[in-house]
């Protein structure tokens, strides 16, 4: 068989199995690790590496993330950070009793004050602002054009009052005021 016959040969359609709805992957809840949950002292010591102890409030919660991984949350008492929490992630290896501080930092809580979501400039500008900006550009173009001409006509030859060009209108060269302001 040549290459041409392979390409020209009709492809045999394999029967497709009936489509089944995809089952969501079952995920079991992570096991609560009593050793990690109880180790508040290690979590607080981890947070004290980045924050002054006076900035760590008495409020404390624990969130289980995965097996052998928990997050301890402490209230933040810094002015301006109401609703924020210091956190320390604690973990341990299987069958180990040694607790490790993985990460520490500051997280916003549910009632924390956050910056609004960023919006691109093109979406922030209202139609009125766009119209005003276009008008300002037109005014700048008009000011940049030679006196007595519209911005669109700046490239055209000047037209005299009689309807023709200045050279062909029959106007005399000396008929206007002289440079010293006197008429001839």
Automatic annotation (TrEMBL):
Single GO MF descriptor: ATP binding
One Pfam family from the record: DUF3027
Feature: compositional bias, Low complexity: 143-152
Organismal lineage: Bacteria, Bacillati, Actinomycetota, Actinomycetes, Micrococcales
Species: Kocuria sediminis
Region described as Disordered: 1-30, 119-184
Ranges annotated as biased composition (Gly residues): 161-173
Name the record gives this protein: DUF3027 domain-containing protein
GO biological process, one term: protein folding
Coiled coil: none
Xref: InterPro entries: Chaperonin_Cpn60_CS, DUF3027
